Amino acid sequence: MGKDTSYLLSGASRGVGLDMVKLLLSEHEGIVIGGARNPDKYEELQELKKKYKDRFHILKLDISDSKSVQASAKEVEKLLPDGLDYLFNNAGTSEDIEPPSDTPDDQLTQVMQTNAIVYKASKAAVNMVTLVISNDKREEGWTVISVHPGIASTDMGNRPQEYGEEFKPECTPEESAKGLLKVIHSLTPKDTGSFRTFKGDSLPW
Ligand SMILES: NC(=O)c1ccc[n+]([C@@H]2O[C@H](COP(=O)([O-])OP(=O)(O)OC[C@H]3O[C@@H](n4cnc5c(N)ncnc54)[C@H](OP(=O)(O)O)[C@@H]3O)[C@@H](O)[C@H]2O)c1
């Protein structure tokens, strides 16, 4: 992992994504691109941009908007003409999700577009997408995995507590980010298609 290694993270405005950006900038070398749908709203991102202006780029990216995704891809191509090393598809939402039968259609669609369906089912769908892409891209040498960041004490991780004790956060977003970076930096192509926790353990599909 050297100064030419490049990283793109979606959902870099807060939570685990923001902590990963901070760790990558402070403890690693390399080029970091942080995707956020409303970057101007987040002072911490702007401060990081000032501090690491040569190797931190902010991308205005809403992953539920195909135009935004396409425009972002073009911008990344310009920034990284030799290609991207690590893509961390971190953005996700679980906001105010009631059981599907009680949730208005437009809200379900929004969650579907961001995560891929209602939260738990959406994460299962994301895992299936991981398997499909890992198979499709195996020959090209891509390593594609799903990771469980732990129940981290972010806006999202703190919210499900109301649903029961078992959802108590088990780590801070920084601990989660540290673990996730260790996991992704340890990967080799033979790990493609696997599912890991932020502690590096394998999870059964
Ligand atoms: N925290 C946990 O306990 C936990 C457990 C299991 C899995 N996860 C997964 O880990 C990832 C990070 O979670 P977190 O706890 O850091 O969540 P978080 O604190 O709620 O942050 C979510 C991030 O995703 C961004 N985002 C949401 N919808 C987006 C969209 N359409 N386009 C672009 N960005 C969007 C948010 O941006 P805005 O600031 O613009 O809203 C924010 O940066 C998520 O995929 C989540 O599902 C978390």
Structure description:
The chain is of the alpha/beta class and 205 residues long. The chain folds into 2 domains: 91 residues, Rossmann fold, CATH 3.40.50.720; 110 residues, NAD(P)-binding Rossmann-like Domain (Rossmann fold). Helices cover 40% and strands 12% of the residues. The protein is built from 7 helices and 6 strands. Strands 3-2-1-4 form a 4-stranded parallel sheet, with helices on both faces. Strands 5-6 form a two-stranded parallel sheet. Helix 1 crosses helix 7. The two termini are 29 Å apart.
List the ligand species: NADP nicotinamide-adenine-dinucleotide phosphate
CATH topology of the largest domain: Rossmann fold
DSSP strand count: 6
- The level-1 CATH class of the largest domain: Alpha Beta
Q: State the shape.
A: globular
Supply the helix-strand structural class: alpha/beta
Strand content: 5-15%
- CATH homologous superfamily descriptor of the largest domain: NAD(P)-binding Rossmann-like Domain
Distance between the termini: 29 Å
Radius of gyration, in Å, reads 17 Å
Please tell me the total number of domains.
2
Which percent bin holds the helix content? 40-55%
Strand order of the largest sheet: 3-2-1-4
The total of helices stands at: 7
Describe the main β-sheet briefly: 4 strands, parallel
Low-confidence segments, given as residue ranges, are none
Q: What's the architecture of the largest domain in CATH terms?
A: 3-Layer(aba) Sandwich
Average pLDDT works out at 90
